Amino acid sequence: MPPFRSGLNKRKTEDNSKVEEKSSYKNANEVNLLGELKTEGDNTDSEHESDEQDSDEEQDGVLFDDSGDSILDEKDQIDEGGNESSELTDSEDNDDEEEENDSQSESDSGQESGLGKTQSGSSDDSDGTEETRKRTDQKLMKKKSKKDISKGKDTKIEKEKQTEDLKNNHNKNAVEKLQKQIDASSITVQKENAVVNLTATDVAFLPLSRSSGGPLPFSHFHLPDLIPLDILSPPKGTDEYESGDTSDEEEKTNTVGEVPMHWYNDYPHLGYDLDGRRIMKPPQRDQIDEFLKQCEDPDFWRTVRDPTTGQDVILSKEDLELIARIKESRVPNSEHNEFEPWIEWFTREVMVTPLRAFPEAKKSFLPSKSEQKKISKIVHALKMGWMKTRKQMAEERRAKKERQFYDLWGSTNEEEEQRRGIHKHIPAPRRPLPSHAESYNPPPEYLLDKREMKEWNKLDETPWKRKYTFLPTKYPSLREVPSYERFIRERFLRCLDLYLAPRAIKMRLTINPEDLVPKLPSPRDLQPFPTTEVLQFKGHTNLVRSADFDPTGQYVVSGSEDGTVKVWETSTGRCLRTIDLGTSVCRVAWTPSQGLSLIAAAAGSRLLLLNPGADIGAHRVAETTDKLLEEPPPSHDVVVDERTRTAAQWERVTPEQWVRGVRIAVAHFKPVTQVYLKYLQCLHFFRAFLTSKYTKNLARDRERYAADTIEFAWHGRGDYLVVTMPDGASRSVIVHQLSRRRSQLPFNKAKGLVQCALFHPTRPFLFVAVGLDSFFFPLATKGAKKCITHIRAPIHAGSVGLKPTKKRRWNNGSADVM
Amino acid sequence: MSGRMWRPAVWALVLLSTLAPSRADGHIGCLFSASLCVEGAEWCDDSEFCLKMKRFSHIFIRDSTESTLSSLYALRFCVRKMYPDLRRRARGWLPLPEVRKENWSDLMEEIMPTHQTFWKVTKALKSEGYILTPPLNRSNNSITLDDTNTQLEKYGVEKEEKGTFSNLFKLVYNARVYQQKVRQARAMKEYSRMKKYLRDYPEINIDHIVKERYPSFVDALRDLDDCLTLCFLFSTFPSLSRVPRHQSLLCRRLTVEFMHAVIAAKALRKVFVSVKGYYYQVEFEGQTITWIVPHHFSFQPQSKDEVDFKIMSTFVEFYTMMLGFVNFKLYHSLNLVYPPKLPTTFSADDKVMIDENTYVAERIAAMNVSLSRISGSNEVDDTPEMDIFPTEDNDPQKLEEVKLEAEKVKKLKTLFKGLKFFLNREVPREPLVFIIRCFGGEVSWDHNMYVGATFAETDETINYQIVDRPSMEKQYLSRYYVQPQWIFDSVNARTLLPINKYLIGATLPPHLSPFIDKIKDQVYIPPEQRALNDPDFKPFNDDEGSGSDIEEASDEDQEQTKKESDSDDIGADEELTRQYKREVEDDSSSEDDKEIDDQNPSKKNIAKEKKKSMAVTIGVPHKENPYQKQIEDKQAFRLREKLVRKKHRNLYKSMKAGQEKRKKEIWLLRKKRRLHEEKVKEEKKADKRKRLLQAVCE
């Protein structure tokens, strides 16, 4: 402690009243003054006893309670002697300080010591009588000691100050010793009290004992465990002198040392004082007492037993505060300012004058030659562009990153276009353009109504089934249109389409569905029908059964039931020739080949081939035909089987017949009883020829005579004839070959009632009408006589006809069956 | 293109686009070398699978000559480990070379490319124009590995002179070698070396791919739709992990350049504001290009399963290149300087403020100033007169139509000429500026909104101010305040529409799509459009005479709707069709009845008369009953329908069904419109009544 300060303090304390004392107690820095204060306090106490007693009492009322002490009556008595001694030592200490510090202090100390003596003397005198006074003294002492404890814990600096004080103490050892002797005598006088006395002093001199490095006196208190011990632990740096000093005083204390006090549980004493006398335990309270005390004593909650002395100690308000502070883990000293201004020992501010004051070396001002060389090199490199600054490099890199665009299609020529690596590139189809529904403000009909919304929501799981990919919404103004959520996703899908979906060119039909419907001629379009009669070919006496044009269309041949075949000129209606066959003629047909002039006529069961003669057609043709047919072709060794032979027999024509015009006759095994005219043999023919009279009876006739008809048809080249006989059973179809005069039976089995058979005009097909069906046989594969096409006609297939196509007559006819 | 971006997918594209049939050698392995299998994996349609496969890219990208086998092992391993369920698929899709050797057979059994794969790839390639021959059945013990070196030896030398393919192969090879170097450096922990490698990453130049895909400029223009849409989208993107910042910046630059080209060429034809964004249609060299620009704030984070930005980014990489070249060509054909430059220099104090490049870029992006032209070239405004070529079908009417169209387009180009527009803050700036400038107008906006405003709002010469708010406090008398839809509708109508419907705060008429094909039949045309097409057309709600009829009808409809609402559970669609049929039948039957009723008595009379009197009467001219005839025709047609060829029957049926469907749709739209109009009318009436009542009360 700096001397001036202590001096100041002292001056203060000296003219202090009690209030000032208190304030000084509170000052943590002035711990060293404790001793003086105590003595002073004591002094004042002793001097103005009557005055102070009251005030003390008052104070006690605040700090302690009398009742607590009142129980300890005995102890109070014991304390009496102790008090004095402690006071003595106190005064000594303080005296020492003062003597050192001030010149003034000498007188003080003298006075004080004198006072102390007088006090002790007085106390001796009023030993038993003035109990109250002693008690107050004792209380004061205790209080002070406790305050000491609280304050003593603070800082090291304070301790050092204390050590200084102690040094001073040492100088005054002699005086002390004297007093000790006196004390000892007093102790001896009051043996019983001495024990307590010692402990009291111990407590009173806590700071000293602590600094001596001894056991913590404070730990004897039953303080709660929460108190961190390191706060209470003594500072390390101890002074030898100090310990020496304190050792003197410790002689009076309990000498058991650091042993667990419960060892003394079974003994009546607590330990031993320096002289080896027992320190007796204060009377123990049993639980009832305890309880009663708890009930009576309002201070019970702060009463603590000191294990070393066995005394009850009532904790003062300060103690409680202290404990509370420690509990809160704050700095125990309530005076300590936690928020003191920070003193910056090391500042960042640069001083004007450096602390280092020696001058710079001379060479530090001279430029380095080697460095200069290096720099010049670098500068040169920079100049020449060999080296670049970082900035330049970054710039370059940036420029490099930037794409350079140029005229890529500048030189487009043919060859270049051929270079395309892709042949037949199929460009990706474009996305469909938006409809009205996609508008931000669509017409109201495009917005979804309730039902459509329901459907929309229903398809939540399968959004691709929805009508739109987006929900048509109407925004009242443009600024309210939000961004489209699925935009990125849609673009992504498009990307996937572009590179993952294979593409192919698909032909798109640009036709209307109506174009696919075939255009049929309506009956109206076929008009005009032959409504008026142009010519009448008169001459037959009976029903005309059949008629046919020659291939050129110049002549018409007709066969009648009157047994004649007449050849007419088409344009005039003149009868050119009449051939009387005797039997009724049911069928006549001109040969399709133009190189022959032949008419086939079916008369009864015979098929006759007639040459109409020289007048009709080309003269030469008739001649060649005659020549051809004059002699039968040499019959090769072709064996005609029985079945065929019996079916058809080629007859030799008698000269009589020859004259009449018959060239060949084929007799069939079925005689013909009736003949009947075919319906719709040829559309053209009918148009020109038939009158409605005939057609009327048609259906009826057909029904009647269907079974008995002999029917034939020419092959397109005129060499073959197919003859059908409805009642011929399996031999109902016979094919005759003119050039070789031979017959064939194409079918082995009867398919049914054969009505009619026809050759295809150009191709090797044979059509056979059987019952309701028409069959179609290819002749090229003769071995396999299969029905290839099976056409079921809606009506009774009375006949089969081939309709010529428009472009080429007969040559390339598609077979439409009527 | 930055060095860091090695896009395997690009390689795949590149390879694909240049692969010649002869290269393929009938062997898939050649197309997807083992080292490219990652790239190849991107080919498969299972993107999830791709993503997972990419994790193993470090396994796959190896030097093929040495470690093909090991990479195959690795592949097999991960296929087994990771995708037990996908194994079959993987087997189908993993583009691996064909390897046949006894020792390897067990290894390859699972991951041999199947024929299915081959055909899939072939199909995909075919659409790009390549034809592959099926994999050859090689003799036993022969290995056909995709050894790059041997490939190069085999094909590279002979094809060198022809060009790109071998170069590409080399490119890929070199890239792989470089990657290996980097990896090696990393493995050796020589980070400085690695850094250096990464910094000097070799560039790949695939300009020739653009040229190959689009041998002529017109080809490129034809395929520009997707390119523009994607670029416009990317120009709005923030920096993403898969989309580097510079890419979106480049997209922005290129799109702005393209828009400038459109402005300079006045090529814009149609615009449409849809829910998805703004559609623009331009015409360059006879090619129509349509693209979409998304609305503001178009970027939204996407889930990984839905969108793979890497694929899109790869596309964009190619597209930016293409668009750059197209821009260059366009600018040169328009006599503009490329890259775009502004004719005026700016004041010094402006320049001080910011980086000059950004400053200029922003001014250009403002699109408010026409770009500087190549010196010496005058602005040629007039387009040459249309050449008329004698075509085969020299239809004078068609020619006339074409001429008319050309005339209209010419008019359209100067639609806004001499007009001054001012954009309010709330109006989307870019689309409007683009449109107005395309048609010759002058635009400005609040200078705080964007740079490049040329005149302030206080300018008295402004003709139109475009406003998108319900009301404005301070209004100038000298100008019209219109909503932005007016601009779009005017452009589509090709004239300045009357503004009374578009005034500030007015309820806008519907915005119609200009892309509806008018020639096509069976297209529903809303009454607004019909009114636009011919001014004589009156929307049916106008005529007051038929009001009662409408009301009746509405009553009926209401009943119907009630019924419908009751029977909603049955199935809305069915219900609708039923209703539709009913209605249609009703129409016809009502007509039927009337006609028949008209006809029958007369017929009977005639018959009676005939019976009564056999006498000769004066000939009455035969009067054909049109309805009867119709019925007959219908019957005849039905008969003929039966004779539709078997080959065409299904086609015919489907076409008919389509027709019916479209008819139904139109019917539905008409109905909805009618209902809506009635509703509006009702409301109006009620409103009127209310007002009247109020007036009376007062």
UniProtKB/TrEMBL annotation, chain A:
One of its GO terms (biological process) is maturation of LSU-rRNA from tricistronic rRNA transcript (SSU-rRNA, 5.8S rRNA, LSU-rRNA). It comes from the Eukaryota. It comes from Eumeta variegata. Residues 11-24, 37-47, 130-140, 147-172 have a biased composition (Basic and acidic residues). WD repeats lie at residues 537-578. It is found in: Nucleus, Nucleolus. Residues 1-172, 233-254, 417-445 are annotated as: Disordered. This is Ribosome biogenesis protein BOP1 homolog. SMART domains: BOP1NT (SM01035), WD40 (SM00320). InterPro entries: BOP1/Erb1 (IPR028598), BOP1_N_dom (IPR012953), WD40/YVTN_repeat-like_dom_sf (IPR015943), WD40_repeat_CS (IPR019775), WD40_repeat_dom_sf (IPR036322), WD40_rpt (IPR001680). Its main location: nucleus. One of its GO terms (cellular component) is PeBoW complex. Residues 106-123 have a biased composition (Low complexity). PANTHER family: RIBOSOME BIOGENESIS PROTEIN BOP1, RIBOSOME BIOGENESIS PROTEIN BOP1 BLOCK OF PROLIFERATION 1 PROTEIN. It holds the Pfam family WD40. Residues 264-530 form the BOP1 N-terminal domain. Keywords: Nucleus, Repeat, Ribosome biogenesis, rRNA processing, WD repeat. Residues 48-60, 76-105, 240-251 have a biased composition (Acidic residues). One of its GO terms (molecular function) is ribonucleoprotein complex binding.
From TrEMBL, chain B:
It is found in: Nucleus, Nucleolus; Nucleus, Nucleoplasm. GO terms for cellular component: nucleoplasm; PeBoW complex; preribosome, large subunit precursor. SMART domains: BRCT (SM00292). Residues 542-558, 585-598 have a biased composition (Acidic residues). GO terms for biological process: maturation of 5.8S rRNA from tricistronic rRNA transcript (SSU-rRNA, 5.8S rRNA, LSU-rRNA); maturation of LSU-rRNA from tricistronic rRNA transcript (SSU-rRNA, 5.8S rRNA, LSU-rRNA). It holds the Pfam family BRCT_2. Residues 1-24 form the signal peptide. It comes from the Eukaryota. Coiled coil: none annotated. One of its GO terms (molecular function) is RNA binding. Residues 411-504 form the BRCT domain. InterPro entries: BRCT_dom, BRCT_dom_sf, PES. Residues 530-633 are annotated as: Disordered. Keywords: Nucleus, Ribosome biogenesis, rRNA processing, Signal. Required for maturation of ribosomal RNAs and formation of the large ribosomal subunit. Belongs to the pescadillo family. This is Pescadillo homolog. It comes from Eumeta variegata. The lineage of its organism: Eukaryota, Metazoa, Ecdysozoa, Arthropoda, Hexapoda.
